[in-house]
Amino acid sequence: MKPIIVIGHKNPDTDSICSAICYAKLKRTLTGNEYIPCRAGKINSETKYVLDRFGVEPPKYLDSLEPKLSDVQYRDVSGISSHLSLKRAWEYMRDNNIQTIPVVDKDNHLQGILTLGDVARFYMEDQDANALAEAQTSYRNIVDTLGGELVVGNLDSHFTQGKVVVAAANPDVMEDYIDEHDLVILGNRYESQLCSIEMKAGCIVIGLGAKVSRTIQKLAREADCAIIAAPLDTYACSKLINQAVPVRHVMRTHGLITFRHDDLVADVKASVSKKRVRYFPILDNSGSYIGMISQRNLLDMERQQVVLVDHNEKDQAIDGIRSAEVVEVIDHHRIDAVETSNPIYFRNQPLGCTATIITLIYQENNVEIDPTTAGLLCSAILSDTLMFRSPTCTIVDQQIAKMLAKIADIDIMEHATAMFNAGSQLDGRSPDEIFHMDYKCYNTKTKSLAVAQVTSVSQSELTQLKEKMIPYLKELLPTSGLDMLFLMLTNIIDETTDLLFVGRDSAEVVRTAFQRECQPNSVRLPGVVSRKKQMMSPLISAIEEVAEG
What is the tens place of the pLDDT at every residue in 270-293? Predict the structure, then answer.
């Protein structure tokens, strides 16, 4: 069973990261199965501070859940050498129950493909007695194929000239059809052996397990004629000998269809759906062969199972979520759930933070919360509720956070202040980095928009930021693919937000949503600190109202 991924939304915040880590740990404890916390974006400064504070490694980064060939159980079929005989290649196919094998060089780079059809085609169509010579067949292959012994000659030499002749006639007749360099298959008749040598044959194969006389051996050496002694009769020798040709003579080298191990499965399926080939080689990024994949492997592929935390909307989920199997959702946002093929465990509660829900699940299952886990969960609650100042914060969030702070041995005020200071260290960051630290995209019936949020304990820092972010938003909008862009500059201490906005009708939308007069591209909103509860609902309602008006 593949490990199950626990992951938060794109552009993850502290709740998304800490909830993924802590829920994966809980699931491992409860089930004994492997749950891996992952993230779908870069870790922001606040979250980095929290992870460093409690000595926890960041979750693994995933850019997409679109399955790649490396996720498929492809077949581990070792490549063969192009010098291997056709006989040995066929035995390899038979023993491994496979009809396609890769041919590789010493560095495991693909040279060609050999299929069962190629073997059959060669055997049925190639009646040429010159096949051994044309294939530059080694004597080693010939000896191995016939199960014989090289009595005279060099195993590493090759049969490169002449044809294969079966010496079934009398010696005086043989002289008419044996040419120089031919390979002659014959029996134990001394006269036929002598005749073949005198006719300057390149090799003689003596069957029936007959002994080769010293005289014949001496004459063969002097004539540079190889001698192979085989236990088979002449019929069997003549039937088998073409199986000695090296694979390179038969394999396919042109028009090969190969794939890289990081190719997307969807792309591969589209490429092979109309091909009449059963297996395809997979290569790594250096071009080395690593395995074979079939269309059945692609069809039988096990989907990646995923647990979503801190979100349930497909637009906020990691790319490729439709290719995965969502098995659980733990969230505290509005429900706009991703589609699932089966019933799942879906827990959604109107609380200020997903980490609060996860803490409740720990308690419900009587699982002890260690100090490190408590520190992560408490940090997530303090972050999402802006240290209990957000209107989304509930009594339950506060009670849970205080309990976790006691276990983790942290002071809530000191820890939250340090977190927010770390998160608002904006010096040296570009406007693009600042905008994308914590932003989410939304779609209404008529508009698409993004709402980012920057929190700080320093009003002077936010004021300076406002001056450079409005020009940035105006520059970003035309290339963003969105209709409107919003940026919340939130002062946690004063519980006030300066909302920056650009886009057609954005000013009218803001006036309608908050009933306040706006400055060019900005408005101050006292008491507004929550994107989820105080910002999105009025904005979305106002967008639809303006569109209808």
Answer: 887 777 777 888 999 888 999 888
